[in-house]
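Quick one, T. Sequence first:
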Amino acid sequence: MVGWGVREPLTACVFSFWENKSNYEYFMDEVHDQIFLKSGQEHTYTSIDVDLFLEEFRIPGSRPDTVSVLQEATYIRTALSHVKKDRIAHFVEMQRKVWNPGMKKAEGMLGGEFARSQKDGLPFLVLTGWTNHQAHQNYMAEHFSGLKETAASEQDVVELTGEQLIVEELWRISPSLHTK
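Structure tokens:
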């Protein structure tokens, strides 16, 4: 799932969620290349960046689980934080105690995932699903600065990058659509 970047309209982001690493590895080893070659995808991009993240915990919202969030969100916000080694515990605690409850209060916040990179463990991904772009803009205007001040993220983070994405409906693949 996802779609095209809001600020960088030629940037496509794709996120996949796997039940476990074995299923992911099977797909990559046995299925991915066949799809890639048959679809002609090698002619559709100039660069690609792939990373695996392991869920630390769910970000609560108005939907009960991540599948529901992925089925309903029309807008996705991601933040990739490269965290100082000696500040990881504080960063994770602030996500759990400050950011999660603060985002949950925002109207239109469906939920999300807080995950850690499997490459070196320092980048953390926050992925949140929203009913629409305006709901996220309202959150930014009404809640974000107060949460940022309380969490003091600038003490934890070396680099922060992010994407704002409008979900491309044709890219949305949901487990409920493919099970009998």
